[in-house]
Amino acid sequence: MSIELGTIGIWRHASGLTPEVLAEVEALGYGAIWVGGSPSGDLGGIESILDATDHIAVATGILNVWKDDAATTAASYHRVTAKHPGRFLLGIGIGHPEATQEYQQPYAKLVSYLDQLDEFKVPAEGRVLAALGPKVLRLAAERTAGAHPYLVTPAHTRWARQVLGEGPLLAPEQKVVLDTDPERARAIGRPAVRKPYLGLTNYLSNLRRLGWTDADFADGGSDELIDALVLRGDAETIGRGITAHLDAGADHVAIQVLGTDPLPALRPLASELGLTRR
Fold first, then answer.
1. CA distance 189 to 77
2. Max CA distance (Å), the chain
3. Do residues 74 and 117 touch, judged by C-beta distance below 8 A?
4. Is 103's pLDDT higher than 80?
């Protein structure tokens, strides 16, 4: 793909991407910022982030296809990429039936949306799909630059690489808490997993595919499930967990630091992961 993401990026809601965070994340050497929370199809917020930074790539993680029609998304894509060539990656996804009243025939909707993006000349190499299961992973490989799985483990990454095959981008998100105390870390990680993710069918189905059971989903998630989905510990320990995704076949990992200020974790992780300051 033509957009350079590097091997390590960050994932964060737009509301948490303050000017200070943007400046330091770019300076620390992170390769991409994945903007969560279903950014608007007008991509105004994305354009503002690109305007405020110099070279870091910016991706939507993800734009919901029920929320914005393909024509709007395509027009916004062309506006943003004309202004910031080589720096924007359009991540799109189907969302969840619990959150979308119109949610019907999700796979057909994705295919139709990609067909329309083709008609509007949005290049396949400029877009990725939020993908968890085999059908959408294969669609991501066939019709886009690759996949951006969310709420996954290195075991899923290894399996997803097998489904995608060699070549397509595989860029999972990984939650982290920089704290060596297990109880404190879980007290941060468990609420972030429980609501909304343990109430969403698509994520539960994927976790069951990986071997987790209803017992793991009860009471906000078992300790084992929370520890698998939210890396905790010092920078060295978390760094090993991030590297496990790369060893399993990921090309890029988007780190989501839980908490109000991600910088106290992103600073030591940049050093631990060998990022080069810019």
1. 34
2. 52
3. yes
4. no
pLDDT, tens digit, 9 for 90 and up, residues 7-22: 999 999 999 999 999 9
Task: List the one residue out of 148, 12, 127, 9 whose CA is nearest residue 78.
Answer: 127
Let me know the angle formed at the C-alpha of 240 by 203 and 195, rounded to the nearest 5 degrees.
25
Q: What is the pLDDT of residue 101?
A: 60
Query: What does each C-alpha distance from 261 to 78, 106, 195, 206, 240 come to in angstroms?
Result: 33, 35, 20, 29, 22
Of the candidates 255, 198, 209, the one whose C-alpha atom is nearest the C-alpha of residue 231 is 255
Residue identified by tokens 């799909």 is 129
H and E: helices and strands count for the chain: 12, 11
pLDDT tens track for 49-61: 999 999 999 999 9
Residue 80, helix vs strand vs coil: helix
Q: Can you say whether the dihedral through the CA atoms of 235, 240, 246, 250 is positive or negative?
A: negative
The answer to whether the Cα torsion of 164, 6, 64, 113 is positive or negative is negative
Cα–Cα distance for residue pair 43/68, rounded to 1 Å: 11
Other CB atoms closer than 10 Å to residue 8's CB: what's the count? 26
Residue whose entry in the numeric block shows the structure tokens 């993401």 = 5
- pLDDT 10s digits, 199-219: 999 999 999 999 999 999 999
User: Quick one: tokens of 129?
Assistant: 């799909």
d(CA 132, CA 152): 8
Q: Which of 226, 183, 180 is nearest to 207 (CA)?
A: 226
Q: Report the alpha-carbon distance of residue 250 to residue 213 in Å, rounded.
A: 25
What does the block give as tokens for 215? 């017992």
